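Supplementary notes for students who missed Thursday's class. We covered one full example, reproduced here. Read the sequence, then the structure, then the short commentary at the end.
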Amino acid sequence: MEINGGELAVFSLGRGEPVIFLHGGPGDTHHYMKRMAEPLFSESSKPSFQCIFFDQRGTGASKLNRRSRDSFLPELLFDDLDRVRRKFTRGPIRLVGHSWGAMYGLYACMHAPEMYSHAALLNMGPLDSEMERLSGEALLKAMGANDHLTWSTLRARRNAARENADIETVEACDREMMSLRVKSWIFDSKLRESFLIDYFQDPPPDREVNKFIWEAQA
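Structure (token representation):
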């Protein structure tokens, strides 16, 4: 689908009332949302929905002509989402957003409430710097002192690599950081390995997009 400055990769599964799913990140792709939504679009689902997924601008199979902070301004994100909506319905549509996608969905509903009939906002990220600080502290509490030190070292290395466009190092650091972060996300230690196997089958997060989107929201 053509958008302002590029193309969106859009996917639809199932039949019934349309629902748009917004993945997290920023910089992730639609793949994990598709697995999450399978009970809503499988042939045995009652009721069944038309589940609509897209890789947000600049991520996954979506393409941008130019990647910069100005390519990720909120008004462009709102326009992308509305173009997807209008492809599948002329009226208001349901939204499901996860993490960053929940924030995206919230802002979109505030921007144009008449376009969205329902919104399920899951595991929303922090909405301001104080919430971000408290959230980060809570997540790090699940790690021991050694893990916390390793996390800080990896994060600094990853951010430096991102600034130098060293994607290989960024992705390697992300994998190691996720192996620590899972201790905060998954309480039952027996489930962590299966979660990581599932998580790592998706394309790695695009950290450049992540950086540009947060800068554009400031």
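Commentary. The radius of gyration is 18 Å. Helices lie at 31-41, 74-88, 100-111, 129-141, 145-163, 167-185, 192-200, 207-217. If anything here is unclear, bring it to office hours.
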